[in-house]
Amino acid sequence: MDCFQVPKVVNIHVLKAIYFFSECVLLDYIPSSSIKLEVAYTIRNANPVQNLDAAIESSLKNFSLLGILKETVTGSDEKLYELQLKPSNGT
């Protein structure tokens, strides 16, 4: 566990999911539900994590607080995340 009380394996898989959606699929905004599904799929062979959804939410919130992600809430209360470190295409 890190100082944010999230297992390290969850943080690693959340970052991998964000990279996958932002670079490979080329999405600017990533729904939290898509991140949760991708993390649940990629972490399936690792040691089980208790309350995985809450751990993923905590990890996403921590990355937002650190400035790695930008959190946006849509009208349907779906949280969208944008990678802050991604260079702009215009310049």
From TrEMBL:
Lineage top rank: taxon: Eukaryota
Lineage: Eukaryota, Metazoa, Ecdysozoa, Arthropoda, Hexapoda
Protein's name in the database: Uncharacterized protein
